[in-house]
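In the previous lecture we treated proteins in isolation. Real proteins rarely work alone, and many bind small molecules. This record shows how such a complex is specified: first the sequence, then the SMILES for magnesium ion.
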Amino acid sequence: MRVYESDSIRNICIAGHGAAGKTSLVSAMLFDAGAVNRLGRVEDGNTVTDFEDEEIERKVSISASLAHCEWSKKKINILDTPGYRPFLAETQLALRAADAALIVVDAVAGVEVQTEKVWEFCDEFSLPRLIVVNKLDRDNASFERSLQSIEEAFGRSAAIIHIPLGIERDFAGVANILTNKAYRFTRDGSGKFQESEIPAELKDQVQAAREKLVEIVAEVSDALMEKFFAEGTLSQEELIEGLKTGVAHHTIFPILCSSATQNIGIAQLLDAVVELVPSPASMDKVQGVNPKTQQATDRAISSQEPYAAYVFKTIADPFTGRISLVKLYSGMMKSDTTYNNQTKAKAEKFGPLQIPQGKTMVPIGEVHAGDFFAVTKLRETTTGDTFCDPAHPIVFPSVEVPEPSITFAIEPKSRGDEDKISNALARIAEEDCAIKYNRDAQTKQLLLSGSGQLHVEVTVAKLKKRYGVEVILKTPRVPYRETIRGRADVQGRYKKQTGGHGQFGDCKIKIEPLPRGGAFEFVDEIFGGSIPRNFIPAVEKGVVDAAAKGFLAGYPVVDFRIILYDGSYHPVDSSEMAFKVAGSMAFKKAMEAANPVLLEPIMNVEIQAPQEYAGALTGDLTSRRGRLQGMDTKRDMQVIKAQVPMAEMVTYAPVLTSVTGGRGSYHMEFARYDEVPSHIAQKIIDEAHKEGKQEEE
Ligand SMILES: Nc1nc2c(ncn2[C@@H]2O[C@H](COP(=O)(O)OP(=O)(O)OP(=O)(O)O)[C@@H](O)[C@H]2O)c(=O)[nH]1
Ligand SMILES: [Mg+2]
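The predicted 3D structure, ligand included, written as tokens:
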């Protein structure tokens, strides 16, 4: 395995909407560059970058993966990423580590929802971008429509570099407006092509595209602008140099053409990557924070600098164990060396460094600034950590992945697997930052949250295949709460004075509602010692314990204030125990008198679906006691915002899927607690009493 210098490296991340052809494109790039000797196909489950069981089975990318090839003596590191919404956190992590993105647009569908989403990620990371219009060989492909949607979404700084030769079944290659040549492919999947003059029927189009490009490139600098005004055009060299600058500063986004599965236009795409994507050596310093001073600092991307590297991804391999994928920003790193994990303040002993080609790892002695590598079995290191020379400390910013949007309760199929589940989930959460799991303190259920039903299902499949634990997915119990509407003034008196040593506690309390927010306040207004100081905390404890057990249906009572204002005691029989009991008796009486009600969590729900389903979806939301908050359109998708009780949403995912034929997605987050309407409350209370009885039996 060769060691590459930073000026011989290009780091790109392939991103775009689901099924745009990203994995197929990577497959063709690797094949044409001779990195692999067959053109892997998603259909056949033999691509380099979709190697996980779940990816092969579902024919969908689920995790980001790293591959590489050599083209024109440059090493191109390629990160393939998922395009389906539930897996976009992976895409975000991969883009964070790349130096440029290749945004893949489906020539039939044009720019889609997730295309825009990944574009936003690129904005966030200030990434240069090339745009590839792929699937130009498909029926109903249209270069014009694709361009139109690209310009609508991303503005006129998207500039054509390739024009397709033919379309749909006749798509045969590309006309390159920079070289002013046409490249016609043999269309047998071999990637072989012949160079020729631009065909007569495309000459005008090529000319117009070139003129537009010259105008856009002229805006890159004052010098170019002056030249352009003086002479009405730019020289070939000025055009190329200006274009490179525009790409590097992400003010110009070149548009390329391809068919990944027919292997057409891939060589020209690789040329464009090598020529237009900045090498790490040519890039500005990378920004970070000095962990000692918390001040911003930066580091030149160079092998001469002290080492600094960023762990952008972790793979939990059931056989190898933990695999950390690392981007080396500066310095060199070697196999079998101990390095400083600055984030964890721990030294980590590295075994051999490896260069991943999908799942295949090739050992390498050392790696230089700008390159990627993998290292296995680090003990403390997790995604987002920085390694650096302790004498030159720097920490790189990590990525905040979005909060999960869907939650299920999980139960093991066989009893006794509880510990296994937690261990396995801990592993999976290491590689998948978008998964969260916890035991709900209120309902005692083990909850698993992800970015969508598919995400949770994939996690369940991993649990089974990798760790041998089978679980059942259930809708989570709704964490209802209880509160009061009114006020009350009551006495709790506990007296047991039959024979020997008795028990005596007596307290008077007022209860008042507090605004929503889950709060509880205890106010001590005892003056003159009607209850001795040392027993007051016992009264509070009695109230707190009783409130946790609930009054109506066993759900915790919240949003209330207790004012302890009077009471009495017995010099011998009073005890903490007795005052605790008195406190809880008082609380129950207070609840009874203060008009108790049930509260339920209300969620902010945002649904995206093709417009034709909007009516059906809003109707369904209304029947779920939802309140519409607004409608919006995003391209051809309708965005519906509503507030809906959580209890009504636990059954939503399969309904949305069946209504929209799998084309809708939704996201929800907690908004607030609201009173449950009384006719529904009664059902919940009856249900809770029934369950309570069953548990007692
Ligand atoms: N006709 C045609 N089909 C293509 C082309 N590229 C990809 N496909 C097909 O489109 C489907 C999706 O391709 P993938 O490469 O898995 O797409 P992807 O963007 O990686 O998908 P995700 O990673 O799941 O978002 C597969 O059935 C491919 O065979 C293309 O250029 N032309
Ligand atoms: Mg893919």
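Summary for your notes: The radius of gyration is 32 Å. The mean pLDDT is 94.
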